[in-house]
Specification:
By secondary structure, this protein is an all-beta fold. It has no helices and 29 strands.
Length: 378
């Protein structure tokens, strides 16, 4: 599965900006339907509202799942652009159950397996939650108490899990932020430490010989390689299926340079995603950009001017304000969690950025509507 996400809303600062451009995407802009409410006009700014949407995944049917950190909910956006709350009551909590009977505590990221099950890195609860296609939520791994124990189900423990991704065999990989480790969970719920020493560091190596500094996002490619957004080290790390960790891109210093491997630089990378060709997309949080890394390690800026903003456009004509999570669909479209704009942005393979969902204002009302981007028909 080409699933990925990012996190780190708790380590962020923001500014407020408003987009005034019109979507040019061939995919319908996402809208929310409410009984008795008129439909939004073509080209309308989405009526959906979010509060720090930070994690994303796309299932084989093209549904986009959103981890809304501030609203403690998981949203689903259909290919037709309909946004609805998939799970979560909106209140902080740790209850299993169906739909709104379940609760989360700062969900950071999501991933989807081949059967349509959604995995959630529930940061505040120190757990990995699992949601069936019918919306039934249960705790898959973690005890809710901070820790660093391997084990099965609730016998295992995490410390602020931020990123989650799933491979083709159904294994889940977790960026365990507080423990500076990458954990692996089998389909049976058995948790073990896949890579990382536990202490902050920046060492390459195999398994526990490697070290990380606040890993936030994870993604898995078709060959089973795991990519990690190593936030504190300003690097993208790569882990082979055998657990061998190398630095894939980034110098280690904060920066904004394109280049190959260590000649490139990032500023607090938070989310990663991989497309079917093996290109890696990075939510470069501090630089307000989306970066692209080829399989050969060549880093370029895919979208974003670098300045905080909320402008749609192509490449550097577009702007973001705290991009956190990224995901890629089967057509190569990239979805971005634009945290402080409270929007989901969509980037075509040609680099055209549009606002896919979100009114730009903080909110959590499925029926809430914003002013249209084009006049409504009367």
């Amino acid at each position: 599965m080409l699933t990925a996400c990012g996190g780190g809303a708790s380590s962020s600062s923001s500014s407020t900006s408003t987009s005034t451009s019109t979507s040019t995407s061939s995919t319908p802009a996402a809208t929310v339907t409410t009984p008795g409410a008129p439909s939004a006009p073509s080209g309308a700014r989405s009526g959906a509202s979010f509060l720090s949407p930070v994690g994303f995944a796309v299932d084989p049917a093209g549904n986009v799942y959103v981890a809304d950190y501030g609203n403690n909910e998981i949203y689903r956006i259909t290919p037709a652009g309909v946004v609805k709350t998939f799970a979560g009551s909106g209140a902080q909590g740790d209850a299993d159950g169906a739909g709104s009977a379940a609760s989360f505590y700062f969900p950071e990221s999501v991933a989807v397996d081949s059967a349509g099950n959604v995995y959630v890195a529930d940061y505040g609860n120190n757990e990995i939650r699992k949601i069936t296609p019918a919306g039934a939520v249960k705790t898959f791994a973690g005890s809710s108490t901070k820790g660093d124990a391997d084990g099965t189900g609730s016998a295992a423990s995490f410390d602020g899990p931020e990123g989650v991704a799933v491979d083709s065999a159904g294994n889940a990989y977790v960026a365990d932020y507080g423990n500076n480790e990458i954990r692996k969970i089998t389909p049976a719920g058995v948790v073990r430490t896949f890579a990382g020493l536990g202490a902050q560091g920046d060492a390459d190596g195999t398994g526990s010989a490697a070290s990380f500094d606040g890993p936030e996002g994870v993604a898995v490619d078709p060959a089973g390689n795991v990519y990690v957004a190593d936030y504190g080290n300003n690097e993208i790390r790569k882990i082979t299926p055998a657990g061998v960790v190398t630095t894939f891109a980034g110098s280690g210093a904060q920066g904004d340079a394109d280049g190959t491997g260590s000649a490139a630089s990032f500023d607090g990378p938070e989310g990663v995603a991989v497309d079917s060709a093996g290109n890696v997309y990075v939510a470069d949080y501090g630089n307000n950009k989306i970066r692209k890394i080829t399989p050969a390690g060549v880093v370029t800026t895919f979208a974003g001017s670098g300045a905080q903003g909320d402008a749609d456009g192509t490449g550097s004509a577009a702007s973001f304000d705290g991009p956190e999570g990224v995901a890629v669909d089967s057509a190569g479209n990239v979805y971005v969690g634009d945290e402080f704009n409270n929007e989901i942005r969509k980037i075509t393979p040609a680099g055209v950025v549009t606002t896919f969902a979100g009114s730009g204002a903080e909110g959590d009302a499925d029926g809430q509507r914003a002013l249209p981007r084009v006049p409504a028909e009367t």
